[in-house]
Write a structure and sequence with these properties.
Its cofactor is adenosylcob(III)alamin. It is built from 29 helices and 24 strands. It is an alpha/beta fold.
Length: 947
């Protein structure tokens, strides 16, 4: 897009703003054709949207005859129809076409842009509207959800998803905090705030009593958020609570959620329903917020030096206690290891990149930690689909990307002119500073399609160059807008600081190491920053912030993205819904694209994709070179990306973002507290603004099997407990047994299992290691303890659930066709015992299947009823409505999805044979998938976050 600031002779009637200015933007076409409306360039079709609860089959939503382009997936159609169409369900006034939705939103942006003098002529405004329509129609980008919910309706025109509140050390302010959060949650958005101004429990009140401290007030806010969440708002309440590391109550704050997690475990073991959304989970506290500690550079240096650190009184600032910094840092890491909270926010880095320090410090963030700016402010988001800029030649179209960013930023700034806000202080701050948050999705898919490993220097360089170009183009357009409609109100006071931060961005761009794929993008980014600085020095800037990286949950599904935000791919095999019903598992379409980019021939690509479709990973795929394995590494699966790989990617793009990054660094269950410390320390050294971790299985609140409700009923109807002692049932002198030889990661051993005459397992013997060795002795003792437990009546399935998926060496490939890969010897042993001694129903709940059973599942077999019939009529492609069987023949690696799954996460669980750490959707019951620091439901589009 090219633009001029000044007169617009020869371009039609001049657009007059409220101020009477004739100056405005001249808009060049990017995608559209003069005289042809974007809607006329696509083929439309009518579809029926019927969304059911995956668990019980009840219909959650139904609307028939909706109109969408034929290239939109079933999932995107379902999400948009159920989430974003406005009007009473079943009434003729309800929207029924994507055209109506886009026109409703774009029409407001078009009219408001004209009204406020953004365009040189009415013709430019029309081109702007058509370009915006084309990009939304073709899933090039999307505004955040509140725009689709509210713009163009009779509701308040709220466009922001992210809010930061302020709370002071007065009861009036604290009660107002509860009220403001409630209003924000009611509208389906999220809020964050810093409680560090509230006096600690170690300080006195003016009346002479002792202060309650911030943690006590967190209880009331948590209960309020839980109540509003349960009231059926658009999405769950999402909130962030931050406390400074020098607050005297910091240790109490750090321990809050870890203590509650311990309580959850005790209640669960006592038989209470402590799942996410469970009937008894409301009895524990602090579960509706993400907690973060705001650490200073002074504190982190004290950790490195192993010195003491002072905790300061809130009212006077004096040091009232001194603690060993390293011990406090270990306490933070220990709590995160136990329950994933608290995260870390690096105060020094955050405020060093602050464009408006004269107007106040940055003390908090939104719930997902990507938006960070002044208290009582908000940010509206939009995200680009990066894969839409990858040409057939495998090159990223940097020039078109820059033009798209410029047009989208223009639209985002226009939205502040007509937007409504939940409180007057938020409205005032947002209108004065005009914070925006442009970002992107599908980075993981883009890197794979271009043949880059996510955790590679080449992949990180490409991500850095794209992010730099995005923010440079956004600020360049912001400077051009400042010349047309003026700078933000707070700019004059913060001009020097704002210019300094822009120079820091440009300097960071100069430090990016380039590779062949990233070099053209980086070159354009360099020239863009140069232009940005020149125009900004002349005009100033229109926006105090321009870019963030949000989770892109629901809008990622709307754009049919394979990956969300900055995340890598979840897995190589995906769950795909089909037109007319049914589903299919299919290898990600970026995989064959990547293989072609890496130089494989058509026949090789088909063979590799077929192998991935069958096995779910690339290990030992026919013809695939080992050095290319890393290109297909995912967030989960046989080859998962190491935690530091996620941190390095965040560090690569952080210098080019106004805000921060919504992302959780996933760590394996066997990770240690020291590993968490290392991650948090490296995040500070690498210049991140915020960081959070999640260790597998660290939380109790995970979904149970289908037997959960039955268990609850059984608990309710159980008679009064009778005290009894377990009785040991010894095996007879002569009993049947079976010996299996095995190899795990090169370690050889033997498993002998002895059974009762009625076929119940009663003892095991494990031979591993040389006779007389420590390992052999430990395994003998272990076998004896398991055998005695079995004879006392402990169910085998209990042992299987406890010991399967344990990770330690030796681990790796086995010689057992039913258990090809084991994470440890114990993992193998108890999977083998389950296969030999447990019925199918119990193994299905544990996710353990034989090779034959997995093969039949892929073919569509339901083992609970024998061979099920395939609904051929329901298996239709989401693109051309061809029968699924033909689609499978045409697409290597495609097959009907197993009947037990309802999402990509559940399909991955079936592949891995173990549960994923993700909650069930509270709307439709589907297992959600990670999206940034939130979770996303592929079934209905619900998210656990705020974007």
């Amino acid at each position: 897009m090219t633009e001029t600031v000044g007169t617009a002779s020869g371009r039609g009637k001049k657009a007059q703003g409220k101020s009477g200015r004739a100056a405005g933007l001249t808009v060049e076409r990017i995608y559209t054709t003069p005289g042809v409306h974007p809607y006329d360039e696509v083929s439309w079709e009518r579809r029926d949207v019927v969304m059911t609860n995956w668990r019980d089959g009840t219909v959650n939503f139904e609307q028939r005859g909706v109109e969408f382009p034929d290239f939109w997936s079933v999932n995107a159609t379902n999400i948009v129809t159920s989430k974003y169409f406005r009007g009473a369900a079943g009434s003729p006034k309800r929207e029924s076409s994507l055209r109506q939705l886009i026109d409703r939103v774009v029409g407001v942006y078009h009219r408001s842009g004209l009204e406020h003098g953004y365009f040189a002529t009415e013709e430019d405004a029309e081109v702007f509207a058509q370009e915006l329509t084309w990009m939304l129609l073709h899933q090039v980008f999307s505004f955040n959800s509140p725009v689709w919910f509210n713009v163009g309706t009779l509701s308040p025109q709220q466009v922001s998803a992210c809010f930061i509140l302020a709370v002071d050390d007065t009861m009036e302010s604290i009660l107002n905090w509860y009220r403001e959060e409630g209003l924000i949650f009611k509208g389906g958005s999220g809020a964050g705030l810093n409680l560090s101004r509230i006096r600690s429990s170690k300080e006195l009140l003016s009346s002479g009593g002792t202060a309650s401290g911030p943690v006590s007030f967190m209880r009331g806010a948590d209960a309020s958020a839980g109540t509003i969440k349960s009231g059926g708002a658009t999405r769950r309440a999402a909130k962030m609570v931050v406390l400074d590391v020098d607050h005297p109550d910091i240790e109490e704050f750090v321990a809050t959620k870890a203590k509650e997690e311990a309580k959850i475990r005790v209640l669960r073991d006592a038989g209470f329903d402590m799942d996410l959304g469970g009937s008894d989970i409301a009895s524990v506290q602090y579960q509706n917020a993400n907690n973060s500690v705001r650490v200073t550079d002074e504190f982190m240096r004290a950790v490195e030096a192993d010195s003491e650190f002072g905790l300061r009184a809130r009212m006077t600032g004096e040091v009232i206690d001194r603690v060993p910094a390293k011990k406090l840092f270990r306490t933070i890491a220990q709590a995160a290891w136990e329950c994933a909270d608290p995260g870390i926010q690096y105060d020094g880095t955050i405020n060093d990149w602050h464009t408006c320090p004269e107007s106040g410090r940055i003390s908090a963030s939104n719930p997902c930690s990507e938006y960070m700016h002044l208290d009582n402010s908000s940010c509206n988001l939009a995200s680009l689909n990066l894969l839409k800029f990858l040409g057939d030649n495998g090159q990223f179209d940097a020039a078109r990307f820059r033009k798209a960013v410029e047009l989208i930023i223009t639209a985002m700034d226009i939205s502040i002119c007509f937007a409504d806000f939940p409180t007057e202080p938020i409205a005032d701050t947002t209108r004065k500073f005009r914070q925006l948050g442009i970002g992107y999705a599908n980075l993981g898919a883009l890197l794979m399609a271009t043949g880059h490993a996510y955790d590679s220097e080449g992949g990180q360089a490409l991500a850095a160059a794209i992010t730099s170009l995005m923010t440079g183009a956004a600020y360049k357009r912001s400077a051009e807008l400042a010349g047309v409609v003026g700078t933000y109100d707070g700019y004059a006071r913060n001009a020097e600081a704002h210019q300094r931060v822009i120079r820091k961005h440009a300097a960071a761009n100069d430090d990016v190491r380039t590779f062949p794929a990233s070099s053209p993008v980086h070159k354009l980014a360099t020239s863009t920053w140069k232009e940005c600085l020149a125009v900004g020095e002349r005009n100033g800037w229109r926006n105090a912030q321009a870019s963030v990286l949000a989770p892109t949950g629901t809008i990622g599904l709307m754009m049919d993205c394979d990956t969300t935000g900055i995340e890598p791919d979840l897995a190589l095999v995906k769950f795909k819904k089909l037109v007319g019903g049914g589903s299919m598992q299919i290898v990600n379409q970026t995989v064959p694209r990547a293989l072609v980019k890496l130089g494989y021939q058509h026949e090789q690509v088909e063979a590799i994709v077929e192998y991935i479709g069958e096995h779910g990973h690339v290990i030992d795929a026919p013809g695939l070179r080992h050095e290319h394995y890393e290109v297909f590494d995912c967030a989960m699966g046989e080859r998962s990306i190491a935690p530091m790989g996620h941190v390095r990617m965040m560090a690569a793009v952080q210098p080019f973002l106004s805000g921060a990054i919504s992302k959780t660094v996933n760590m394996p269950e066997v990770a240690t507290v020291e590993d968490v410390e290392k991650i948090y320390l490296e995040g500070w050294k690498l210049g991140l603004k915020a960081l959070a971790i999640y260790r597998d299985n660290c939380k109790v609140g995970q979904p149970l099997s289908a037997g959960k409700s039955a268990k609850a009923t059984e608990k309710a109807e159980a008679p009064a407990p009778v005290e009894a002692r377990p009785v040991r049932r010894r095996l007879p002198k002569k009993r049947p047994s079976e010996t299996v030889s095995f190899t795990v990661g090169g370690a050889e051993g033997y498993l002998t299992a002895g059974s009762y005459p009625d076929n119940g397992l009663g003892e095991i013997f494990v031979k591993l290691g040389k006779q007389g060795s420590t390992l052999a002795g430990v395994m003998d003792a272990f076998s004896m303890s398991i055998s005695v437990g079995l004879q006392y009546g402990i169910p085998l399935e209990f042992y299987v659930s406890k010991f399967s998926n344990l990770r330690f060496e030796p681990a790796g490939m086995t010689d057992d066709p039913d258990v090809r890969i084991a994470t440890s010897v114990l993992d193998y042993l108890f999977r083998r015992l389950a296969l030999d001694h447990l019925p199918y129903e119990k193994r299905a709940q544990l996710g353990i299947f034989s090779a034959d059973e997995r093969t039949k599942q892929v073919a569509g077999t339901d083992y609970s009823t024998g061979y099920g019939e395939v609904d051929v009529e329901g298996l239709r492609s989401s693109v051309d409505a061809a029968p699924a069987a033909e689609e499978a023949e045409r697409t290597p690696g495609a097959a009907p999805a197993p009947v037990e799954v309802g999402s990509s996460t559940e399909l991955l669980e079936l592949r891995l044979g173990k549960a994923a750490d993700a909650p069930l959707c509270m709307t439709c019951g589907t297992k959600m998938r990670p999206a940034g620091s939130c979770y996303l439901c592929e079934g209905c589009g619900s998210t656990s976050g705020c974007s």
